[in-house]
C-alpha cells in the first residue's frame, strides 16, 4: 500500500502543490459551492472530456485558497490514471483511504474526491458508507461518465442525500471567453461547427480537431460502452451513432431504424437497437427528446428526436454543409436548454409540431427554431404554430436573421446567442 500511497501523493495537494485548474467553469462552480458544507454527496456527471476533472480541481483549489482548508484534509483519486490501476474494488479503495488517514492523521472534516468512480467495482459501498458515517465528518464529491451512475439500488440507498450536476461541453459564452473572442453571428456559426469540447481550444487546425474528436468517439464507444457492457456487435453500435448524427433533429423511431439497417442487409432487431441506443445516451453522446402532447399534457411513445451532446461529432465526420445549418441550430438550442436546466420535449398540438417545450419547476416556455425567417411562409409557420397554443406561457422564435423582428402578439424573436438565463 505504501507504493500506491506515494503515487497518490503526487496528485494531491498535501505537499503544497495546488492542482492545475484550467478555465474556470464559473456556472458549475457556483452551483456546486451552494451545496457545499454538508453531508450531501455531490455527483458530477457528463460525457468524457467535458471538464469534470477540472471542476473537481477547481473545487479543491477553492477549499484550500478560499476557505483555508488544510490540504491534508483532502483525498483525491482519479481512476482514469494508470497509476491507480491496482485500485479495482471498493475494498482496495477502503484500504488506501485508511492508509492515508494513518499516515497523515488529518483532524476534522475530510473532503473525498473520486474521479470517474464507475471504474471501481462496488464503489457505491464505499460512498454509501462514508456518506452515512455519523462518527466523523466526511464530504464526498464524485464524477462519472455514465448517466446511470446513481440508478437502481444506490439511488434508493442515497435517496435525499445526494445532488447531481450534469456537465456539458463549453457553452458559446465559455468558448468565447476561453478564446478571448466576442460573440458575433460568425463566431456562433463557427461554434456550431467546432463545438465546445474544452481541449479543442488548444488546437490550431481542423485536422487536429478531427483526429481528437475521432479519438474521443472511439474511446467512449470502446471503453465506456463496449468493454463495460460487453457489446457483441461494436460495428453496429458505431453505425447507430453515425445514423443518429446524420439524422439529428429528425423524427425517428426504433422500428424505423431497424428497418433502415435491414434495408441495407444488416441483421438486427428492436431489442438490440433499443439497448445500444440506451448505451449511447448513458454515455452522454446523444440526448433524446420525447414528443409531448400539449392538449393531453403527456409524453407520447414511439417517435422521438435525437440530438448530439456536441456538434463536432457530426461536422468533423460528415462535413459542415451550409444547407444543414438549420439542423445544427436546432441541436444548439436543445443542448443550451438542457444546459440551463430544462426538461425539453418536442411539442405536438392538433397535428402541428412545436420544436421545443422547455419545462423547469413551474415554468414552461415554447420555442420555434428556424435558420432564417426570409420567406412569408416560414414566418407564418413559425409564429403561427406558437399562436395556436392558447395559454399564457412564454413563446419564443429563434433564428439567425441579421435583423430582429418585433414582438408579435406576445411572441418574442431572439438570436440563438441571446438564449441565456
Protein model, in words:
By secondary structure, this protein is an alpha/beta fold. It folds into 2 domains: 2-167, Rossmann fold; 172-418, no CATH class. It has helices at 2-10, 26-33, 52-66, 90-104, 123-132, 153-157, 172-178, 185-194, 206-229, 234-246, 254-262, 270-282, 312-318, 325-339, 376-387, and strands at 41-46, 74-78, 110-115, 138-144, 162-167, 286-293, 298-308, 343-349, 352-360, 363-370, 394-399, 411-414. A hairpin with a 2-residue loop joins strand 8 (343-349) and strand 9. Helix 4 packs across helix 5 and helix 9 (206-229) crosses helix 13 (312-318). The longest helix is centred in the middle third of the chain and has 24 residues, at 206-229.
In short:
The chain folds into two domains: 2-167, Rossmann fold, CATH 3.40.50; 172-418, no CATH class. Helix 9 crosses helix 13. The chain is an alpha/beta fold.
Please give a handful of descriptors for the protein shown.
single chain; 421 residues; alpha/beta; Rossmann fold; 2 domains; seven-stranded mixed β-sheet; five-stranded parallel β-sheet; 15 helices; 12 strands
Secondary structure layout:
Blueprint (H helix, E strand, L loop, with lengths): L1 H9 L15 H8 L7 E6 L5 H15 L7 E5 L11 H15 L5 E6 L7 H10 L5 E7 L8 H5 L4 E6 L4 H7 L6 H10 L11 H24 L4 H13 L7 H9 L7 H13 L3 E8 L4 E11 L3 H7 L6 H15 L3 E7 L2 E9 L2 E8 L5 H12 L6 E6 L11 E4 L7
Parallel strand pairs: 1-4, 1-5, 2-3, 3-4, 6-8, 10-11, 11-12
Antiparallel strand pairs: 6-7, 8-9, 9-10
Percent helix among the residues? 40-55%
Cα gyration radius (Å): 23 Å
In what order do the strands lie side by side in the largest sheet?
7-6-8-9-10-11-12
Per DSSP E runs of 2 or more residues, the count of β-strands stands at 12
- The tally of structural domains comes to 2
What's the overall geometry? globular
**Can you give the mean pLDDT?**
94
Instruction: Outline the low-pLDDT stretches.
Output: none
Helix and strand pattern? HHEHEHEHEHEHHHHHHEEHHEEEHEE
Beta-sheet strand percentage? 15-25%
Structural class: alpha/beta
The end-to-end span amounts to: 49 Å
The biggest sheet, with number of strands, parallel, antiparallel or mixed sense and barrel status, is: 7 strands, mixed
Tally the helices. Answer: 15
Amino acid at each position: 500500500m505504501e507504493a500506491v500511497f506515494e503515487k497518490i501523493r503526487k496528485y494531491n495537494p498535501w505537499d503544497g502543490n495546488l492542482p492545475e485548474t484550467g478555465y474556470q467553469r464559473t456556472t458549475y462552480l457556483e452551483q456546486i459551492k451552494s451545496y457545499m458544507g454538508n453531508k450531501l454527496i455531490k455527483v458530477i456527471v457528463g460525457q468524457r472530456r467535458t471538464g469534470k476533472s477540472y471542476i473537481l480541481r477547481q473545487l479543491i483549489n477553492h477549499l484550500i485558497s478560499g476557505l483555508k482548508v488544510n490540504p491534508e484534509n483532502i483525498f483525491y483519486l482519479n481512476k482514469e490514471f494508470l497509476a491507480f490501476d491496482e485500485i479495482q474494488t471498493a475494498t482496495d479503495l477502503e484500504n488506501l483511504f485508511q492508509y492515508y488517514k494513518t499516515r497523515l492523521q488529518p483532524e476534522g472534516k475530510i473532503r473525498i474526491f473520486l474521479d470517474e468512480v464507475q471504474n471501481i467495482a462496488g464503489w457505491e459501498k464505499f460512498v454509501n458508507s462514508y456518506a452515512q458515517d455519523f462518527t466523523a465528518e466526511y464530504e464526498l464529491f464524485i464524477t462519472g461518465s455514465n448517466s446511470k451512475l446513481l440508478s437502481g439500488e444506490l439511488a434508493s440507498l442515497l435517496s435525499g442525500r445526494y445532488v447531481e450536476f450534469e456537465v456539458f461541453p463549453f457553452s458559446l459564452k465559455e468558448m468565447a471567453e476561453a478564446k478571448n473572442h466576442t460573440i458575433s453571428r460568425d463566431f456562433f456559426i463557427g461554434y456550431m461547427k467546432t463545438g465546445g469540447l474544452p481541449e479543442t481550444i488548444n488546437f490550431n487546425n481542423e485536422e487536429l480537431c478531427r483526429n481528437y474528436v475521432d479519438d474521443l468517439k472511439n474511446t467512449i464507444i470502446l471503453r465506456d460502452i463496449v468493454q463495460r457492457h460487453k457489446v457483441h456487435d461494436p460495428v453496429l453500435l458505431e453505425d447507430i451513432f453515425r445514423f443518429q448524427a446524420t439524422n439529428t433533429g429528425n423524427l425517428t423511431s426504433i422500428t424505423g431504424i431497424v428497418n433502415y439497417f435491414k434495408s441495407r442487409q444488416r441483421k438486427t432487431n428492436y431489442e438490440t437497437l433499443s439497448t445500444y441506443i440506451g448505451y449511447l445516451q448513458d454515455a452522454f453522446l446523444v440526448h433524446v427528446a420525447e414528443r409531448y402532447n400539449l392538449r393531453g399534457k403527456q409524453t407520447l411513445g414511439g417517435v422521438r428526436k435525437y440530438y448530439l451532446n456536441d456538434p463536432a461529432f457530426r461536422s468533423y465526420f460528415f462535413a459542415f454543409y451550409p444547407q444543414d445549418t438549420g439542423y445544427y441550430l436546432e441541436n444548439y438550442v436543445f443542448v443550451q436548454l438542457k444546459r440551463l436546466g430544462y426538461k425539453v420535449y418536442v411539442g405536438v398540438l392538433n397535428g402541428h409540431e412545436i420544436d421545443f417545450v422547455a419545462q423547469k419547476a413551474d415554468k414552461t416556455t415554447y420555442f420555434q427554431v428556424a435558420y432564417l425567417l426570409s420567406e412569408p411562409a416560414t414566418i407564418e409557420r413559425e409564429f403561427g404554430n406558437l399562436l395556436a397554443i392558447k395559454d399564457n406561457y412564454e413563446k419564443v422564435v429563434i433564428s439567425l436573421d441579421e435583423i430582429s423582428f418585433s414582438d408579435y402578439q406576445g411572441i418574442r424573436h431572439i438570436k440563438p446567442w441571446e438564449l441565456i438565463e
